[in-house]
Amino acid sequence: MDFLVLFIGYxxxxxxxxxxxxxxxxxxxxxxxxxxxKRTLGQICISLAxxxxxxxxxxxxxxxxxxxxxxxxxxxxxxxxLGHSILVIDVLxxxxxxxxxxxxxxxxxxxxxxxxxxxxLSCYPDPGEITSKNQKYFMSLYKSDGVLYHPDAFCxxxxxxxxxxxxxxxxxxxxxxxxxxHCVWTNNCVxxxxxxxxxxxxxxxxxxxxxxxxxxxxxxxxxxxxxxxxDTQYIDPNTREVHPITLYILIQHLFMEYPHTxxxxxxxxxxxxxxxxxxxxxxxxxxxNQTTNERYKLYDIVQKSKLDNKDPHIINDIQSMRPxxxxxWKNIQEVIFPxxxxxxxxxxxxx
Length: 351
Ligand SMILES: [Zn+2]
Ligand SMILES: [Zn+2]
Known about the structure:
α6 packs antiparallel against α8, α9 packs across α10 and α11 packs antiparallel against α12. The strands form 4 sheets. This protein has a 3-stranded antiparallel β-sheet with strand order 1-5-4, with no helix packed on it. Helices cover 64% and strands 7% of the residues. It is mainly alpha-helical. It starts with a helix and ends with a helix. The radius of gyration is 25 Å and the shape is globular. Belongs to the DHHC palmitoyltransferase family. It catalyses: L-cysteinyl-[protein] + hexadecanoyl-CoA = S-hexadecanoyl-L-cysteinyl-[protein] + CoA.
């Protein structure tokens, strides 16, 4: 198969796979032509694959994604290790040879440590657990808006009245303050107390991958320059004619000669696009004082209102409601200093 077809196929399957995974709950992807294609492909895969394999995949995915376990954390660490191994084995030796005066070590080490530091803060400290002891403080933080949150919502598992903006996480098995979502990569909830660390974790992955992309690109440029690859020629296999090298042939040659380095050059920007857009989405949520959980809830309410044939103006009002918005600066402060408000309440009651 032609190299270009394989390459485009790889990029397309990565992009489509990512969209299907990240937007798996989206109405657009589950209805109409897209939904039909998705369902048909799913049925074809299921009918072709052995039943034992499907059962094993289902059980494994359920065990990994719906229970508290460190599997995805280990996977992330292995991916970071793989990326750095390629960097050390395939990229750094060339950088040291072709650019001996440059510092190629300090930044990757700083970025890697920063990433693990923010990952640790996203994974382990309390995201905002609500217990019967601290529930009264969380109760006074927000008022029920009557649409997204109703007063006296009771959690049967924790046996407490759930404060507005909190949710019971079925994976962590606890009610969590200002719940955003449960992240399988950190094996922890993203919520009131750790959303800031989660955003910094995402950004640190992007910066680490950005630096890796730059180092890989620089390495390949140095190889091309030092080996004078742009001055070479190639023989057309069909006509046997000799032509000056083109960019397409050069990329193909680099893929054959330096497959690991080329893999990094395309894989790292893909990670930046995925996690960078997730970080941008979270920054948008912070600035408007919303959570992912609230966005989903709002979406469901709007869909239900449309089915009930409610007035379009009312639907529009619901769609644009931001009941907890306090203005840009206060919204940001709420995420950067999540305990400030709680501490104030605590000290007030102590007096
Ligand atoms: Zn609960
Ligand atoms: Zn959770």
